Amino acid sequence: MNWFLFFWVVFKAILFSTGGFGPLPSLHTDFLANGWATETQFAEALSIGQITPGPNGLWVVSLCYLVAGIPGAVLSCIALLIPPLFVLFVQQCYNRIAHLPATQGLLDGVVLVIASFSIIVLMGMFQSSGVDVLTVTIATVSAVLAVTRRVSINLILVVAAVIGAVMG
Amino acid sequence: MKVAIKTAKKAASSGDSAALEMDSFVGLEREDLTILKLFLTWLKIGFTSFGGGAITQYLIQENFIYKHKWITAESYANIIGMCQITPGINIIAYTILIGKQLAGWLGIFVSVLGLILPSAAITVGISAIYMSLSQFHRVQSALHTVFAAIFGISLATNWRNIRPILRNNRQQGLLVFIVSLVILIGSGLIYVFFNPSVIVLYLLGGLSGSFIYWYVARKKVN
Fold first, then answer.
1. What is the ipTM of this complex?
2. For chain A, which terminus, N or C, has the lower number of CB atoms within 10 Å?
3. Across the interface, which of B131, B148, B169 has its CB nearest the CB of A139?
């Protein structure tokens, strides 16, 4: 494993994205191209990241641990901590640029791109993890419940895990 | 109020000008703040926020705004706004700004450490357990259905992220609305068919959005 390249790939993915799942498309492209991870490992890491405490973005730590052990996990932690420090700079200029239409346009444009990517990437993972009546039903019901906010996300995940363990 | 002033003086001595904003202290019966207490508060959040980002955010509000009253809901709202245009995990950026406001650079250090150390360790621990249990069919099957649920939830999350943008842009006029749809669908199509570097598409989407908002705003003024 070329650790410098590994760190750079993770760091770059986080630096040029925002939010927990923002780095997903970039990581997905680079990790698969370098042969570091499989689609299954991505799906596993994303699932583990949802269950564990802390920001959802820690799924990256799980992924790096699954594919590169403790050194991978430590490097990914460092890569996760540096980009958000940029907020100190944002704080300095925020009041000056927040009201500009171009600032809002930039944010909205990036959010649209991230949404589009994330859905395509997750759909690919969902497909390769094996689509059947059960998983499609769980995905659909989860989406509806999450949009309507009828039940907590935790309950959805626990019920899904129990269904999987019982049916498995 | 005595306690609050004491805390303000303490924060001031750490050299953080943001902590001097007295308006954030008025009307608050704040709990006394020490570096140790700040660290322990984040540590507790890092250990107990099973269930990811939504739970973590809830616990941050609960502890810092409602329980200890160290920050106001207003300054928290500002923090959230600023963190939207910051790269990386938003919650880590929240942690940095809250830490800075309360205790300067040392505050940033203990806050980030307190949140990340336990949660990253637990994440690695659960990943390790998973690796040793992954040969069991039931474990794989459980994670498989959890992923299906996450896929569904992420459809909802992404929809909730883009819905206000699309709704707002439809009110702004047909041009902005069409450009938003083109960014949304176009970036997906470009990604599928040409597989370019993701950064290129972020820049393309961001700059297109930036330009069209600027253009429409300028046209309105004229």
1. 0.78
2. N
3. B148
Q: Which residues is B88 bridged to in the sheet?
A: A18
Task: Say if A59 falls within a structural domain.
Answer: yes
Predicted confidence at residue B51, as pLDDT, reads: 63
Which of B5, B168, B10 lies closest to A105 in space, CA to CA?
B168
Q: Where are the domains positioned within chain B? A: 2-133, 137-221
Q: Is residue A123 part of a domain?
A: no
Domain total of chain A? 1
Q: What percent of chain B has pLDDT over 90?
A: 42
User: Rounded to a whole number, what is the distance in Å from the CA of A24 to chain B's nearest CA?
Assistant: 10
Q: From B148, which residue of chain A is nearest by alpha-carbon distance?
A: A139
Q: Residue A155 falls within a domain, yes or no?
A: no
pLDDT in tens, B154-174: 888 788 778 888 998 999 889
- pLDDT at res. A4: 96
CA–CA separation, B109 and B72 (whole Å): 21
**Type of residue at A149:** R
Residues in chain A predicted with pLDDT less than 50, given as ranges, are none
> A79: which 2 tokens?
């890569």
- Binding-face residues of A in 101-130 toward B, CB within 8 A: 101-120, 122-123, 125-126, 129-130
**Which is it for the CA torsion A159, A165, A166, A167, positive or negative?**
positive
Taking an 8 Å cut-off on Cβ atoms, the answer to whether A138 and B89 are in contact is no
